[in-house]
Design a protein that fits this description.
Elements lengths: L8 H10 L4 H14 L6 E4 L1 H16 L10 E5 L26 H8 L3 E6 L29 H9 L13 H8 L5 E6 L5 H7 L2 E4 L19 E6 L2 H11 L29 E5 L9 H16 L3 E5 L7 H16 L17 H12 L2 H14 L4 H24 L4 E5 L16 H5 L6 H6 L3 E8 L5 E8 L4 H15 L9
Parallel strand pairs: 2-3, 7-8, 7-9
Antiparallel strand pairs: 1-3, 4-6, 5-6, 5-10, 9-11, 10-11
Helix pairs in contact: 2-3, 6-7, 10-12, 10-13
Amino acid sequence: MTDLTALTLDEAREGLASGTFTSVELTAAHLRAMEAARALNAYVLETPDQALAMAKASDERRKGGSAGRLEGIPLGIKDLYATEGVRTTACSKILANFVPPYESTVTKQLWRDGAVMLGKLNNDEFAMGSSNETSAFGPVVNPILPANWSEEQARTALAGDKQGLLVPGGSSGGSSAAVAAHLCLGATATDTGGSIRQPAAFTGTVGIKPTYGRCSRWGIVAFASSLDQAGPIAKTVKDCAALMTAMAGHDPMDSTSVDRPVPDYEAAVGRSVKGLTIGIPREYRVEGMPEEIEALWKKGAEMLKAAGANIVDISLPHTKYALPAYYIVAPAEASSNLARYDGVRYGLRVPGKDIIDLYEKTRAEGFGREVKRRIMIGTYVLSAGYYDAYYLRAQKIRTLIKRDFEEVYAKGVHAVLTPATPSAAFGIGEKGSADPVEMYLNDIFTVTVNMAGLPGLALPGGTDSRGLPLGLQLIGRAFDEETLFSLGQVIEDQAGRFTAKRWW
């Protein structure tokens, strides 16, 4: 029988519709794959009983002539999404045993369309990280190996300290690793500064950060409220479009949710891109950028040109200020959002001699090192005497970054093409331990999209000299994800899919 976990989401839908296999069979195959791949640490909680029950109910609906867009499709859910009756921790010790009595809007819409939940996926603690190494559950292992590694060497490292194995990116590293390792047919993720696109680039998968306000944030644990956005990671552009169509939509429970119709994003896949104008921003040619990334970027432009798109050079002059401005705005909002975790209402509680002592002990024990660092940075930039000098100035820069894109799009540019990351995936433990700024620099190509509230799609464009995937990024006009899916399909058709070889 065909390996059901190797199918794309779209292929699985066809198989389910034709009766080639059932959702129970498809779900059971993924549960077996998850069990065999536990050493990758992609899942922090498996929900096999619930998954099989949801799959059985899906099969019954199909027999009755009813089938949603994602009917019977098994998905992984990032542990930032509240799932009713199922532990949700944001991969932090401070929420270790939190079981929400409600469902996030996005997951509710996925279940409405017939999807099946396999379990909760690992992520950087409170989504703060670029490598999935800050999780309270430990790091996730990228299922992709460098070309010079043997399977035996990899298994030995996996059973030991994991040194030399690669990170899957962050914060949605569990989502990207699970998709790449065939442990689900798609996954939910979130993107605050690149946390969908960077992991997708590191694992050879496809991920889209939608326009701010396109997907509801209700029921998703907050990091930086003006930057966070839900989105999917999947194996192909079309799979991503299918998930996005289910996830998007107006939600009165979220005051930042935009009330406008949701198009059928799948219909945009395969649409001609002839005559579209694609901008190449000169400011993204950063000092020290590897030649492989430059060559990938050029190759991506050639692919789009061959499909009939026009390639033009553009300028986004305030790009150089994006990263420092982001690392003021995001920690500031994080310090405010994380103030609610005090040991009184829910989550971890460490007793103290008085209420202040309880607060201090709970937060000291409950938060990890990176989360504490960002809370302290955020509290500092919001404090009296520094608010104007840092936070207010960063917000002004944010406005200028947004204006740069608006001016480019007003001149007839339909989308912008850039690299997704400044390198391929790096090793576990390789960056950030001594100098956190080194880790922050991984977001250099992605943070502008969040600062401007625009949609961004990352997908495989080629490989480096070690055979590791390299990602390209397409940045679109606000609420024009359809154009990104059309352009992304052109690149996928020419560059091909990246498929991880199983070795674990």
